[in-house]
From TrEMBL:
Catalytic reactions of this protein: Transfers a segment of a (1->4)-alpha-D-glucan to a new position in an acceptor, which may be glucose or a (1->4)-alpha-D-glucan
UniProt enzyme class: transferase
Family: Belongs to the disproportionating enzyme family.
Lineage: Bacteria, Pseudomonadati, Pseudomonadota, Gammaproteobacteria, Chromatiales
Source taxon at top rank: Bacteria
Keywords: Carbohydrate metabolism, Glycosyltransferase, Transferase
Keyword Transferase in record: yes
Organism: Thioalkalicoccus limnaeus
Protein name: 4-alpha-glucanotransferase
Membrane-crossing segments per the record: none
EC number assigned by the record: 2.4.1.25
Amino acid sequence: MLVEDTPPSVGQDHRRAGILLHLTSLPGTGPCGDLGPGAHHFLDFLTDCGVTVWQMLPVGPTQTDYSPYQSSSVHAGNPRLIGLEPLVQRGWLVPDEWEAAKTSDAGKANALRTAHRRFRQQASPEATDAFARFAEQHDYWLADYALYRALREEAGQPWWRWPEPLRDRDDRVLAQARRRLANDLDYIAFEQYLFFDQWQHLRDHADTRGIRLFGDMPIFVAHDSAEVWARPRDFDLHPDGSLRVVAGVPPDYFSATGQRWGNPLYRWDAMIADGFQFWIDRIRTQFQLFHLVRIDHFRGLESYWEIPADEEFAIHGRWVKASGAALFERLNQYFGEIPLIAEDLGLITEEVETLRRRFRLPGMKVLQFAFSGGAANPYLPFHHDRDSVVYTGTHDNDTTLGWYRSLDRAERDYVDEYLGHPREPMPWPLVRCALASRSHLAVVPMQDILGLDSTHRMNTPGTCHPTNWQWRFDWTDIPPDLPTRVLRLVDLYGRRVG
């Protein structure tokens, strides 16, 4: 039996439709979208549309550029995503404090500190016990993360520039730091308790709606992160913690000089030696949050692009073999079959494809990549297999309307001819094309659902553009008839569940 004719392997018991929208892009009163009422309202919108998958970007703590793919922890939640309205409802903030916190990240941080003080002063025994249980259940990562962050804020420097005893985790010095920073550690743990508690409420609401939360897991870890400080043996570093080599990709569709991401690379020998504990812990956390998870840059688990740390650009790198097969064997042994999706875009070799198929991980089909190279292009819909996820575009692409307008006349004519010279304006013909695909899951970015142009793009890879990761929509952007229109298409292409 051919692989493409086997049943879907990611728990997709039905053909489904999804929308891609990061939490920060939700409407709301704060500096970015969060886990407050707006997130729950969006679940109701998805239900009205017949959409049963909500895909979002990574939700870990971001750094100064707000990129979700450069996080200071692979486990912690981003404090920016904590909703303040639920804290008012619980009596840990008063309305005036919430109002004062709306305009900036600094205001929200101050409000969270206030909520922590009030929690310690007046929380019920039930809430106090829930916090204690959370800290105990998440101790496999929370203690290291809290100490890393408290020390990072105290030093104002990345961990490899700390005094040597702290950098190298001297037990005596760390014990002193825990005593000195006890209140900060308690606050950071409380912050994570709020995030995970609010997330659980969102997931419970999603479950009642029959909606699956679809997460995104960056393959690599930020150098300045709790995990690299706590587990340096797992990363290819110099003894002083500085980078020896870094991750990236060679020249591709997005960049003529490649992309130098700057993440440390793994020491696969060390990970094999301890049974891939780093990855087991990571997967455990991801599936506390999400029903299914995409592995970003999956091809790096077969071979990765290694760049000398002193190189400015990615072009002078080399391919190095990874231990992805051993990793997935271990994960399957530990967890059983888990619903992972492989981001298999870019330069994909037969070895990468073999790894993906061996472990029955669905790949991605992006329609904006489909209309070059003629009928052999693997992203054209008639090449799609059922065990895949089809997109009009991703967070790294232009919006579909912006992409279509950027095509030259010949390219646009080819797209129009392939799609049957549709009467509907873009992006709807490509949305229909995605929903009609054989792929069991079709995901459309919210920008395409709203028919938005290039000014609403989420990210331009390889750039530090100030608008990257900043896009938000407003509820007034949604025409009254939009849910009915989307629901009709979901029905028409057999993607309605229930």
